[in-house]
Design a protein that fits this description.
Largest sheet: 9 strands, mixed
Organism: Indicator maculatus (spotted honeyguide)
CATH superfamily of one domain: Endonuclease/exonuclease/phosphatase
Strand content: 15-25%
Low-confidence stretches: 1-5, 18-130, 136-145, 160-179, 449-460, 513-519
Number of strands: 25
Distance between the termini: 58 Å
GO biological process, one term: 3'-UTR-mediated mRNA stabilization
Helix content: 10-25%
Protein name: ANGE2 protein
Shape: globular
Strand order of the largest sheet: 3-7-9-24-25-10-11-13-12
GO molecular function, one term: mRNA 3'-UTR binding
CATH architecture of one domain: 4-Layer Sandwich
InterPro entries: ANGEL2_N, CCR4/nocturin_mRNA_transcr, Endo/exonu/phosph_ase_sf, Endo/exonuclease/phosphatase
Radius of gyration: 24 Å
């Protein structure tokens, strides 16, 4: 609405984004000098925090002759682009069928792009701890003829002190055997909300920008399956997997690709759920643990969302019996029910805490994937990454940050969930919590007989404080460092936001590890690379999501990890 209401919606959006970015830049320029690690990110129109956002510049950018874990591209006419001085990232131009579509040509520059033969040209950022390298895939042959296809590049991380030469990385398997006495276990994980057909049809107002034939399941599923084949992840965490489609098509198709599949359908009448699928050539299943967030005896928990937690055994020879815990969930959407979201998250974390402990008392490495229906920087997001949240006085509608001006000012109750749920404020099952406290009390009593009265439970000290004991980092940084523009993981007629994440327990030497987190892990995970996300403007060049080639309203997230043993 307003004086520009006659302009197409995407043109209005372009104007608003440009003005916000320009105004933000002017504010920072005029009011104060900007440090080398700060950039104005404008603001998410849906977030509660229109503030300057710190961006991690502890990375160099260069272009190796490697395409990350995209092994299948080598067999599908994909190869590296011949890079030019312009160093632009191109999206193919879709045919213009509607006045609501974006302009034909858009480009986004890559920072520090340089010739692969001259790694000395890498750009040095302050406090650099690692190198971030870019591989850009260029469609060729039959792929280049497709209209509206999205090109995403691979970002590869390597430590500054051990920056690999191109030839070393191309032959990394043989090189590792020469430089390391122990085997390496590298694997890739994808998180992907594939858009349930039932939910698509129930929310058709979100897809008014799409041609009807593109929204049919018979059109969408082959595209989704092809995307999964090409990305070739070792572990798939899928959300909005419709039960009848899973039973008749999805499960058998993935099994034919070498995956073992575990599935948890939502409770009640909801026909979709979460699936975790893993390559049997890489892992064996130790246990599968579904989590239902509905509790008929607790009025707060009247929603049908679910989670799924798997404990996997890597197929490799190593000193110890390493295990990896993989969790997948889809939290409640409702922006005004942050109390339910936090309780669902606590239930998932409690299940992980019961599955992940090893014989020596430490946690095995953990990866949590899913659609959290919460934005970067929100209280729920900070709780996951920081391991603590004081929610006293926090409005329920501000927990997820989905709305800039949430309706209603109801405050979270203290405690959020009733005691009969059986989960403590430390997000563990009460029985486990009591056992831990009893053990701690016995040890302290043996050491200090006269100081037993000093034992105080943390949750009793601070009843409005939630905690968890996982040292979690996010695979993605959520903003493009060269511009401060937000990354997006979902884009439809109403919004373009980040709500999908891959969190992981970082190894102690991982530069993305959270400071101050409890060192209670058996080894950890080193992030080796990730599939880059896109901006909202990038996605509207292909008419948003879903489109002709991308058949969900979410983008797949993909990361490569290395298992680090202690």
């Amino acid at each position: 609405s307003g004086r520009h209401s006659m302009l197409p919606r995407q043109v209005q959006r372009l104007g608003r984004d440009w003005i916000a970015h320009w105004n933000g830049s002017q504010i920072l320029t005029l009011n104060s000098p900007v440090s080398s690690y700060m950039r104005w990110a404008g603001h998410y129109p849906w977030a509660s925090f229109p503030l300057p956002v710190p961006v991690d510049f502890s990375a160099n950018w260069r272009l190796p002759q490697f395409f990350g874990p995209w092994r299948q591209f080598q067999n599908s006419n994909w190869q590296l682009d011949n890079f030019t001085q312009s160093s632009c990232f191109h999206l193919p131009n879709p045919s213009m069928k509607s006045e609501k579509e974006e302009p034909l040509i858009k480009k986004r520059r890559l920072v520090g792009q340089c010739d692969t033969s001259t790694p000395e040209e890498e750009i040095n950022f302050p406090n650099q701890k690692e190198t971030l390298c870019h591989c850009v895939a260029q469609n060729e042959g039959k792929h280049s003829s497709k209209k509206g296809s999205i090109k995403r590049h691979w970002e590869y991380f390597c430590q500054r002190s051990r920056t690999m030469k191109i030839k070393d990385f191309k032959n990394k398997e043989s090189d590792q055997s020469n430089t390391e006495s122990e085997p390496k276990f590298d694997f890739t994980v994808m998180s992907y909300n594939i858009l349930s057909q039932n939910l698509l049809e129930d929310n058709s107002h979100l897809y008014k920008h799409c041609r009807q034939r593109l929204l049919m399941w018979t059109y969408r599923f082959p595209n989704i399956l092809q995307e999964i084949k090409q990305l070739d992840a070792d572990v798939l965490c899928l959300q909005e997997v419709q039960e009848d489609h899973y039973r008749t098509e999805i499960k058998s198709s993935l099994e034919s690709l070498g995956y073992h599949c575990e599935y948890k359908m939502r409770t009640g009448r909801k026909p979709d759920g979460c699936a975790i699928c893993f390559k049997t050539s890489k892992f064996s299943l130790i246990s599968a643990n579904p989590v239902e967030f509905f509790r008929h005896d607790i009025p707060l928990l009247d929603r049908d969302n679910v989670g799924l937690v798997l404990l996997l055994q890597p197929r490799l020879h190593c000193k110890t019996n390493a295990a990896i815990c993989i969790a997948n969930t889809h939290l409640l959407y409702n922006p005004r029910r942050g109390d339910i979201k936090l309780t669902q998250l606590a239930m998932l974390l409690a299940e992980i805490a019961s599955v992940a402990p090893q014989k020596d008392g430490t946690f095995c490495p953990i990866i949590i994937c899913g659609d959290f229906n919460s934005v970067p920087g929100s209280p729920l997001y900070r709780f996951i990454k920081e391991g603590k949240l004081n929610y006293e006085g926090l409005a329920i509608g501000k927990v997820s940050g989905q709305e800039q001006f949430p309706r209603g000012q109801r405050i979270l109750s203290i405690p959020i969930w009733p005691k009969k749920l059986g989960i403590s404020q430390n997000c563990v099952y009460e029985i486990k919590q009591q056992q831990k406290e009893e053990n701690a009390g016995e040890k302290l009593q043996a050491a200090k007989q006269d100081n037993t009265q000093e034992i105080v439970i943390a949750s009793e000290k601070s009843p409005s404080k939630l905690q968890h004991h996982f040292k979690l980092s996010s695979v993605y940084s959520h903003y493009f460092p060269e511009t401060g523009i937000p990354e997006v993981t979902t884009c439809h007629s109403r919004s373009a936001v980040t709500v999908d994440y891959i969190f992981y327990s970082a190894a102690n030497d991982d530069t993305d590890a959270q400071s101050g987190a409890e060192d209670s892990f058996h080894g950890g995970l080193k992030l080796l690379g990730r599939l880059a996300l896109l901006t909202e403007k990038d996605l509207w060049t292909v008419n948003g999501l879903p489109n002709e080639n991308n058949s969900s309203d979410h983008l797949p997230l993909l990361a490569e990890f290395r298992l680090i043993e202690r």
